[in-house]
Amino acid sequence: MHINKNFIRNFAIIAHIDHGKSTLADALMRTCGALEQRHEKEQFLDNMDIERERGITIKAQTVRLSFKAKDGQYYQLNLMDTPGHVDFSYEVSRSLSACEGSLLVVDSTQGVEAQTLANVYQAVEHDHTIIPVLNKMDLPSADPQNIKKQIQHLIGIPEEEAIEVSAKKGIGIEEVLQAIVDRLPCPKGNENACLKALLVDSWYDVYLGVVLLVRIIDGIIEPKMKIRMMAADAVYTVEQIGVFTPYPSPVLHLSCGEVGYIIANVKAVGDCRIGDTITSDQKPASEALPGFKPCTPVVFCSLFPVEASDFDKLRESLAKLHLNDASFSYEMDSSNALGFGFRLGLLGLLHLEVVQERLEREFDLDLIITAPSVVYKIHLQNGTWMDLHNPADMPSPNEISVMLEPWIKTTLFVPETYVGSVLTLLIERRGIQESLEYVTPTRALMVYKMPLNEVAFDFYDTLKSLSRGHASFDYEMDGYKEGELVLLSVVINGDPIHALSSIVPKTRAYEKGRAICQKLKEILPRQLFPIAIQATVGAKVLARETVSALRKNVTAKCYGGDITRKRKLLEKQKEGKKRMRQFGNIEIPQKAFIEVLKIGK
């Protein structure tokens, strides 16, 4: 069935984490009759195990709904459910580029949060019409009047435009659907022009190969049509076209303004570049769509397979995962201790955890991860600059002229009860205050600048525990500044362990080095010879611990007799231990790497 683009509405749902986006998506699907009773489950669009376990959305999902408006006309609504966590902002930006409007969901018990603001700014950048929706109105602690004022004060949307709903109880859902039809613009574009489709997402299917999710900007796409990917300059024949309703449903064509999937026997994973333009091979478009702003990785770490024979499997798995999550980058890496692996660039620590879990679950891999690090810029004495991704590659101190570290600008919303403890945390993490204002009598908005390294490890967890989960934070990159930084190395029995080395502020080197040595002393299994664990900066040893040797009582069989007999046996044991220490090999368990990463939490 061919539909006029005036009756199409494309919209995204944006919100802070845990404000009820996925529950609202369920309610919209239920109201439009897209979910059958027997298939119904909560957070239907969160279809990954990790999403359901953690209660977060990681992947943006799309679904086509059909809604009969008050004018008696049926409208096609294409919904994008987006993630709320700061680490998945790239997913959000891609979804927004495929839509003309957004539903801004705000929890009516908590109000506007840091990520709400960040997502609104992204929506404004994409020229979106925004409809504010106050969710969780069924809760006794809901405070809609104050929250509407907050939305007007912070975002500038008139308070009378906000719609009060309870997604869980299904209250106000019809009103939201009607507002989407009335307030959001229909897609622009020309159905008779050359085909231009934006590649929004892709994923690997074992049976079908690569599945492409596209938004048609101009023209029309049909089965058996030859399409060209403009960035990769690859030509494929379309086998099948479909939409998610939310189940995959084949259709005869996708025309201007619609969102759907294409199966075209794409086997080369490298041909699919998110943000690419798909056009017709017979009548190609003259220029590509602008695509997406490339995302900049901020946290780096290395991944190594526990079994060296799994290296090829890890390479294939990363290529398939990258197809589905274009926001991380990877390149080959090697380590004396851990063999061959890959260096990953990610958008944050939660992103790192999710990528690791997905590799282990979806591709059945056992992995070792090195300490996350950020990118430093080093000005060498010879006048050249270098980017330092891996602490193990740091030049010696006498070659370095200046070392710069990345800084971020962070926005925090904190209930007044916890302002004191959060300020202490920010000062500990070398934060510099830009502003602090009370947006309501009970909530403070703080803007701070701080080094990214201080946030990359455990800042988010510490902030949540200090504020009992009520504080929220968001950040953006803010350039580089000079810092007094040193390379903290871990040496075990004279061998440096590169996977455990990290770059730390000079003032914290002793404290961190001591903590690492104590932790390793607890974890390393005892051997038949003593193990010396040292934390060093250059040639200077800052901290040392020794794991004492296991001892066999060689004199147990001596009953009495001359002392020289016992001494002879002890000397013989001592010689054996000395020889053993020379050739003894210390196996560092995987647990040791993970525990050292957690130091400071």
TrEMBL record:
Record Pfam families = EFG_C, EFG_III, GTP_EFTU, GTP_EFTU_D2, LepA_C
EC number of the protein? 3.6.5.n1
Name the CDD domains for this protein: EF4_II (cd03699), LepA (cd01890), lepA_C (cd03709)
Q: Which residues form the Tr-type G domain?
A: 6-188
Q: Which SUPFAM superfamilies match?
A: EF-G C-terminal domain-like (SSF54980), P-loop containing nucleoside triphosphate hydrolases (SSF52540), Translation proteins (SSF50447)
Q: Where in the cell is it found?
A: Cell membrane
* Membrane topology note: Peripheral membrane protein
What is a single molecular function from GO for this protein?
GTPase activity
Which positions are annotated as binding GTP? D18, H19, G20, K21, S22, T23, N135, K136, M137, D138
* GO biological process terms, semicolon-separated: positive regulation of translation
Q: Which reaction does it catalyse?
A: GTP + H2O = GDP + phosphate + H(+)
Matching PROSITE patterns, A to Z? G_TR_1 (PS00301), G_TR_2 (PS51722)
A GO cellular component annotated for this chain's UniProt record is: plasma membrane
Q: What does this protein do?
A: Required for accurate and efficient protein synthesis under certain stress conditions. May act as a fidelity factor of the translation reaction, by catalyzing a one-codon backward translocation of tRNAs on improperly translocated ribosomes. Back-translocation proceeds from a post-translocation (POST) complex to a pre-translocation (PRE) complex, thus giving elongation factor G a second chance to translocate the tRNAs correctly. Binds to ribosomes in a GTP-dependent manner.
Q: Which NCBIfam families match?
A: lepA, small_GTP
Q: Which family does it belong to?
A: Belongs to the GTP-binding elongation factor family. LepA subfamily. Belongs to the TRAFAC class translation factor GTPase superfamily. Classic translation factor GTPase family. LepA subfamily.
| The protein, known as | Elongation factor 4
Organism this protein belongs to? Holospora obtusa F1
Gene symbol?
A: lepA
